[in-house]
UniProtKB/TrEMBL annotation:
Short name of any one Pfam family annotated for the protein: Peptidase_M23
GO molecular function, one term: metalloendopeptidase activity
Domain M23ase beta-sheet core: 135-229
UniProt xrefs under SUPFAM superfamilies: Duplicated hybrid motif
InterPro entries: Cell_wall_metabolism_enzyme, Dup_hybrid_motif, M23ase_b-sheet_dom
Name of the protein this chain belongs to: M23 family metallopeptidase
Domain of life, per lineage: Bacteria
Length: 238
């Protein structure tokens, strides 16, 4: 879940003892991942005041089980000769997720990057070709190959390249550790370092990487924490 808001300028915040960035206007953001415990501690220190502890209840959710068949064997159990590439790409993404830029683009809200049937949800346990794998950490939107995709919010492109599992992939930085990822594209229309407006085109949907059919895999992170993108999107597509 993505949590955003605004406090009086000069307020200091900490989540479970971890200091949070607070913008000049008081904007802040943090997130909870799939396996977070039932409680979190938010410490609020007003300007010139004393720290106040607020206990946040994190609702427990039931997760779906999704079974996918027909994936190429190399995409479920990669051969040894591809592991160096997979490790390199995983490390690169981990480094990008440490980005802590100061412009709170997230504060203007998010739009759906594509419109279509939801074919996969965040948090579901994945069974690939009969083998249990890591939970799904994004939202899948079933769209035909070549569907235009949009930036879910303003920001800056951190990554635009082909990756082993996610195919042609775009990562956008929205500030304060909030990032979105768009996977399996057939065409990339942005370059790394490029500034983007909310709703700006980033490329075309496809079926590259580990897929059973064309769709957009849309994910969201707060630093290294994978959060449910649906928590930040409008209730209805459009």
């Amino acid at each position: 879940m993505l949590v955003t808001g605004r406090v009086p300028p000069g307020t200091r915040l900490a989540l479970d003892g971890r200091p949070l960035r607070v913008g000049p206007r008081g904007d802040y953001a943090f997130g909870f991942g799939r396996d977070h415990g039932p409680e979190a501690l938010l410490t609020v220190t007003p300007p010139g005041g004393r720290p106040e502890a607020q206990r946040l209840a994190v609702a427990k959710r039931e997760w779906q089980v999704q079974r996918l068949q027909g994936l190429p064997g190399a995409m479920v159990t990669p051969p040894p000769e591809t592991m160096a590439r997979i490790t390199r790409e995983r490390d690169h993404l981990a480094a990008l997720r440490k980005t802590d830029s100061a412009e709170p683009h997230f504060a203007a809200g998010f739009v759906w990057p594509a419109t279509g049937r939801i074919s996969g949800v965040y948090g579901s346990q994945r069974i690939l070709n009969g083998e249990a794998r890591a939970p799904h950490v994004g939202l899948d939107v079933a769209v035909p190959v070549g569907t235009p995709l949009r930036a879910a919010a303003a920001g800056r492109v951190l990554l635009a390249m082909d990756l082993y599992f996610t195919g042609n992939t775009v990562v956008i930085d929205h500030g304060f550790g909030v990032q979105t990822l768009y996977a399996h594209l057939s065409r990339l229309d942005v370059t790394e370092g490029e500034p983007l407006a909310s709703g700006q085109g980033i490329g075309l949907s496809g079926a590259t990487g580990r897929v059973t059919g064309p769709h957009l895999h849309f994910a969201m992170n707060w630093f290294s924490t994978a959060i449910d993108p649906a928590s930040a999107l409008p209730a209805t597509q459009g």
